[in-house]
Predict the structure.
Amino acid sequence: MNQIKNWYNRQLDEFQAVIFDMDGLLLDTERISYDSFMETCLEYGFENTEQTKAIYQQCIGCNSSRLQLILKDGFGSMLPNNFYSRWREIYGQQVYQKAPPIKEGVLPLLQFLQSRNLPLAVATSTKFPNAIKKLESTNLLFFFDEVIGGDQVRKSKPEPEIYQKAAQSLRVPAESCLALEDSNNGVRAAHNADMFVIQIPDMLPPSELVQTLDQWISVPSLADVLQLLQNA
């Protein structure tokens, strides 16, 4: 797929709003989540193998309900009842007791979009109260008009519901929104909502399926996104 062709002649004015994922895109928290997952695995006697890594990779971009289904499917009858809660406890100790790190390029991009008076929203698989905590502690919340959490929708990414709800909350047609995502599940969700998606991969490269999408491009960093939009 020719990514340049997908973006060619795009104008920023085509987009009435921009919708952001949060973890792995705005916040550098995906590695923390992975390390917390592996620490939990070791506590319960699961070795750091390709199988456990594969289970985690399926989790990226999903809400808590879908995460627990993935864990149950991946570990089967060996899954301890409190594995998920212990994982989130270890993770929470690192991201809620102090501000999590912000990804490079976040502030210049948000400031640019704000200067263009574009409505901005967050569509995150993180539960709404926890998303607000993260965005408040990093002083990013005031940039956004709306925040939609994974506990506010029935179907997790890669289903489009969370992006559709974010667009509705901004009173903008979904097809007129630009979505920014790091995960393949998130890209598919936004694309399924008829949005153009720019992917900035974090822990995983674009999947083969994602690379077949038409309304999609991938760039290395948020600085590259800013450059694209400034030149659009």
Q: What stands out?
A: The beta strands are 17-20, 120-123, 146-148, 177-181, 196-199, 216-218.
